[in-house]
Design brief:
Strand order of the largest sheet: 1-2-3-4
Shape: elongated
Distance between the termini: 49 Å
Radius of gyration: 17 Å
Structural class: alpha+beta
Order of helices and strands: HHHEEEE
Number of strands: 4
Number of domains: 1
């Protein structure tokens, strides 16, 4: 049991020191938004393409949870791309619009 607790502490410390920085999220979110805008153009969704292109120009919101973090572009209230990361890895996805 003590070894398991020690392992959890080591993993938590590693997660804290390898939490991705905002710059990593911005680059990944721009790629995601650019791909979403391209997909919208292929589907002839001009409004979605313009919205995703405009979202690339604005800054997103970075939230640090110490062991992991989240990035929303352009804002957490109206995200077009949502990114999560831990251990220097960042994963982004486009948010579905109605």
């Amino acid at each position: 049991m003590l070894r398991f607790l020690l392992l959890l502490v080591v993993v938590a410390v590693a997660a804290y020191f390898t939490n991705p920085k905002p710059e990593a999220y911005e680059a990944k979110a721009r790629e995601t938004l650019q791909a979403a805008a391209q997909q919208d153009l292929e589907n002839l969704d001009i409004g979605g393409a313009i919205g995703n292109s405009a979202a690339q120009l604005s800054e997103g919101e970075y939230e640090n949870f110490y062991l992991a973090s989240r990035y929303s572009a352009p804002s957490a209230q109206q995200p077009r791309a949502q990114c999560y990361g831990a251990f220097t890895l960042v994963s982004c996805s486009a948010v579905a619009r109605n």
